[in-house]
Design a protein that fits this description.
Cytochrome P450; oxidoreductase activity, acting on paired donors, with incorporation or reduction of molecular oxygen; alpha+beta; Cyt_P450_B; monooxygenase; 46% helix; single chain
Length: 408
């Protein structure tokens, strides 16, 4: 379903119309970063007739303003074009003030105390996967590491049996990158059914709940009452959908860049304390999210007339390449003074609650992988392509390296 207003294109100034398809456009599949960077040199806020018609924000300040302006730009629909789901996403699909009542419990899951408790398990997961790679000289990184690590971490947070990991990975990939809407819907329903059954098991005997997520949900109060089962399930689905494919996609860009830039990789090997700075700069350079908002009322915004029901696509993936904020934006500089001004995790009330966990996973990934994979490189002759949409990641990343180093 696209923009609900017929003839919308006739009302848009010609200099604000740009044909851009973030899902299937040839440029986005082949070389998205050049396409996203170049969007920032145009009007910055424009209308694309693709995908049923929608507005796009490509400049950092405009993206941030829209994400923070919940009164005009609602989160009740965040996909462009709209996608109807059987289970609403709490708190993703809520606006303030209702949103804040539920967000508190989700934020608790990513506080310092829980992350400190999780860090050894995250380190052990990354080290185990890295040691598996170190037994050979090549791997397909998406399959062998990027998808496995965040899914395992989520399962540990829930106390889910790790033997279901590969099945969950398949659901995540099909939901976000299925060949058809039907494949995506089927994967979504399977993940809901599995998490729903697990939730029911936990509720039968809450004292035996493992992991961190269930105890937090049980403690949560909204307007003085505990969460309903349906609310708990919705939050679980939000965590499942929001934190697995995104981290995996981010990992692919970071590892590709370091595999192709030996000097930058050596800087981190020589100075591991620079890894947190490098993570921030790489998050800026390779921001991966495009998220939608729905206009709540007719209004004038950024010099154009918006109509109630218009969809607006916030290209967070382009905001980090805004030359007015980040000169020479396509270059990676670990010492860039404003590297933390990126909005890779969004902004405003809906800023990603899992950002601290994502940063921790990315940092530990580099700490564990880089020393074990000397002479890291992309396999010569490999043809790389991207999956597009809400997240932007590499479909495959074939890596090779020299004789692995034994790291304790």
């Amino acid at each position: 379903m696209g923009c609900p207003v017929h003839g919308r294109l006739n009302d848009v100034p010609a200099d604000r119309v740009v044909s851009f398809n973030y899902r299937t456009g040839e440029a986005m599949v082949a070389d998205p970063w050049t396409e996203l960077h170049d969007l920032g040199t145009g009007p910055g806020f424009f209308y694309s007739p693709e995908l049923g018609g929608h507005w796009c924000a490509a400049k950092r300040e405009t993206v941030i303003d829209i994400l923070r302006n919940c009164e005009l730009f609602s989160s009740r629909n965040i996909r462009v074009p709209r996608v109807e789901r059987t289970v609403p996403s709490i708190p993703h699909h809520m606006d303030p003030p209702e949103h804040g009542k539920y967000r508190i419990s989700v934020v608790e899951l990513f506080g310092h105390r829980i992350l400190d408790e999780l860090t050894p398990a995250i380190r052990a997961t990354a080290r185990g996967l890295a040691n598996e790679l170190a037994t050979r000289n090549e791997a397909e990184f998406v399959r062998d590491f990027a998808m496995r690590m965040p899914v395992e971490i989520f399962m540990r947070m829930c106390g889910l049996p790790l033997e279901r990991r590969d099945e969950m990975i398949g659901w995540v990939q099909s939901y976000f990158h299925g060949a058809s809407q039907q494949e995506s819907n089927d994967a979504h329903e399977k993940s809901i059914a599995y998490l729903s059954g697990w939730l029911d098991e936990q509720l039968v005997d809450p004292e035996k709940s493992g992991g961190h997520i269930m105890p937090s949900l049980l403690r949560t109060r909204v307007d003085g009452r505990p969460l309903s089962r349906e609310e708990m399930l919705s939050i679980l689905i939000t965590l499942f959908n929001g934190g697995l494919d995104t981290v995996a996609a981010q990992m692919t860009h970071i590892m590709r860049y370091l595999a192709e830039h030996e000097n930058q990789r050596q800087k981190l090997l020589n100075n591991p304390d620079k890894i947190p700075d490098a993570v921030e700069e790489l998050l800026r350079r390779f921001s991966i999210i495009s998220i939608g908002r729905e206009v709540t009322r007719d209004a004038t915004y950024a010099g154009v007339e918006l109509r109630k029901g218009d969809m607006v696509l916030c290209l967070i993936s382009a905001a980090g390449l805004d030359e007015e904020i980040f000169p020479q934006a396509l270059e990676v500089d670990f010492d860039r003074s404003n590297r933390r001004q990126h909005c890779a995790f969004g902004s405003g009330p809906h800023m990603c609650v899992g950002a601290p966990l994502a940063r921790l996973e990315l940092r530990i990934m580099l700490e564990e992988l880089l020393p074990r994979l000397p002479e890291l490189r992309v396999r010569p002759g490999a043809s790389l392509s991207y999956h597009t949409g809400v997240t932007l990641g590499l479909v495959e990343l074939p890596l090779q390296w020299g004789e692995s180093v034994n790291v304790s």
